Amino acid sequence: MPLRPRYGDLLLIVLLLLPLLVALPRLGGIGGPPAAWLSWVGQVSGILGLAMMLLAAAVSLRLPGFDRPFGGLVRLWKMHHWMGFGAFILVMVHVLALALAAVPSSLDAAVATLFPPVSHGAIWLGWFAWLAMVIFLAPTFGFFGRLHYQRWKRLHLVSAAAVLLGLWHVLLLAGETWPWWLLGIAGLGAIAWRKLLSPRLSRLPYRITSVDRLARGVVELVLEPEGRRMRHETGQFVYLSPLDETLAAGRREEHPYTIASSPSDNQLRIGIKELGDASRALQSVTPGTRVLVEGPYGEFFGRRFPKRDMLWLGGGIGITPFVGGARDLASGGASRGMSTSSISPIVLIVPTIRRNSRALPRLMNPSASPSITPESEDGWTKPFCASTAPTTRNEKSISAVPRG
What we know:
Blueprint: H1 7-27, H2 34-58, H3 73-102, H4 107-114, H5 121-140, H6 149-155, H7 158-173, H8 178-201, E1 203-215, E2 218-225, E3 237-242, E4 255-259, E5 268-273, H9 277-281, E6 290-297, E7 310-313, H10 320-330, E8 346-349, H11 361-364, E9 372-375, H12 382-388
Parallel strand pairs: 7-8, 8-9
Antiparallel strand pairs: 1-2, 1-6, 2-5, 3-4, 3-6, 4-5
């Protein structure tokens, strides 16, 4: 598939370079003795590191539609993850380069650069920001082993202190401060929305009307809105927070689950597999339970099904977005003004589809989903996939196909 330009990526690059471009006239060139060169590298890495940290905070914003220019929320969170790590590395380069630049004068000068008198408050603010980064990034990258998800979330709140201290540090030192105000407002605004406003403003109340047990450790929750209905696209996901105080785990905790219903369905269907404490507790949730739903996010199929042959490969709970796609086609695609006659043939391969056929009647009923041909694992063979899978100019055939 050809790579589509991500307009959000271009915007991030522009915002990342903006403070540097504004500061370059004051920094001068990169030439001169090693001390001057190291000082230049130290200042540039500090500018880029702090800008990257503020942008990492900004892209943590979880708002339906905000993730689209970046390729979906999952991709956006990966960018957030690596931008945070990149910011930490650049800040380390910033500190070491400035210290090494002072070494030709004396070791005392290098130490004084790193640890000046307390009266140099701006420098110490930078150190406190770095310490906060160490605290919230260490568990993220597993430096001290695997951390429980909820504890990690609470510890990650320290990132707000790192952003605030880092911004204060640069505002006291920068010649031109308007780029930093811009990035700072974006980063701190995203954190404030995520932690303070979003839980109160962006979650919709729903009530569980039925719990369909599809297989061992797999349920489908059917939700009815208590007020405004959330509109979604096929294959998107939501964050669900159960309000049942009797649950063994996950009470009022938010976790992501894929939508299995058609966008035209007034009910919201959520597929949940037992994979952790919270999802295990939801296996025993009862009808009538109130939940909060936030979303939708992601773009599994995009705004429209592509008008070409498609091969769907799914297994286990990974079939959920395809169930939503099948239900959308079975309903005539009314939510997007399309009909099954406008969709090219689709082949769905799921190793367990025969055993779960009663739980997925529309997938197994050609009259309900005329565009979809379900195949069991017996049909998952190299010749079958080679003759069925869509090809591109760079992929003429399939060389190997795993089973199961």
